[in-house]
Structures are given as structure tokens and as C-alpha cells.
Predict the structure.
Amino acid sequence: MKFKIMTAGLLALCLGAGVVFAAGEPQAERQALMKKIGGSMGELGAIAKGQKPYDAATVKTALTTISASAKDFPNHFPAGSETGMETAASPAIWQNMDDFKAKSMKLSSDADTVLASMPADQAAVGQAMQTLGADCGTCHQAYRLKR
Ligand code: HEC
């Protein structure tokens, strides 16, 4: 009897894990978040370079997207997702998870800080990009494999 219940429990666990996995591979989810971050930086870059006119709503959306995506990003590195789906995540992430999370949170909070003082013209957007861009570089250097 006891054995039967345990087997049923195990089966439920396995099925549950299967559902989570099918809902979205963690590698794909985190890559999608980075694509969003990259796209938002592109929007800011176009304004900073003067390719597009300054637009407060665009700047706000981009900064909000970067903040939210960077906050969520470290949640998509479960054990077992170290390889596969052409991930460029370095194994160093799993050896330094706290530092990795801190770097992601720094990008998020830097985006919040920039948002709080809302860049009001082209030059200010350029400055904001330098602040945020440094966060990209620091983390990529430590935790993103070169392909
Ligand atoms: C906390 C670390 C971290 C920070 C901060 C970070 N990245 Fe990333 N980024 C990564 C990792 C790790 C990958 C590889 C993810 C994978 O392939 O599983 C990646 C991948 C990418 C990719 C490729 C996504 C794809 O198509 O697979 C882009 C684009 C990108 N990052 C842009 C940025 C930009 C722009 C910033 C700064 C605004 C930034 N990243 C900040 C860690 C970071």
C-alpha cells in the first residue's frame, strides 16, 4: 500500500517536471529575455545616435523592459540547463550563482535609477546607455561564452 502511494507520488513528480519542461526550455526563455534587453538597448541607441528623434515614451518603455527582464533573467538557469539549445551560458554561472544574480540585479537596479531621473534628451540617453552598457560588458565577459 505504502509502496503504491510512493510510486504514484513519484509518477506525479515526473509528469509535473515534464510539463514544466515542455512549457518552455529555460535556455530559450533566458535567450528571449536577453533579446528583449538587446532590442531595448537598440531603441535607446537609435536615439543616442540621433537616428531617431528623442521620444520619452520609447525611452521609458525601453528602460522598464530592461529592468524587468534583468530581474527575471537569473530565474532561468536551473540545474540541467547548462548545455543545449545553443546556449552561450558559461559553466561559471553555476559555480558563482550569487555573483551572477548580483550582476543581473545590478543591471535591473541601474535601469530603475536611470528611469527615476528620466533622461530628457539625446545626450542624457547616451549617458544612460554608457551606464547600462557597462553592466552588459561586465557580465558577458564573465558569464557568456564567445561563439
Ligand atoms: C547577469 C549577466 C548578464 C547581463 C547583465 C547581461 N547579459 Fe546578455 N547574456 C548573458 C548570458 C549568460 C547570455 C547567454 C544566454 C544563453 O545563451 O543561454 C547572454 C546573451 C545575450 C544576447 C544573445 C541572446 C540570444 O539571441 O541568444 C544578447 C543580445 C545580450 N545578451 C544582450 C545584452 C545587453 C544589451 C545587455 C545590457 C543591457 C546584457 N545582455 C546584459 C548574461 C548577461
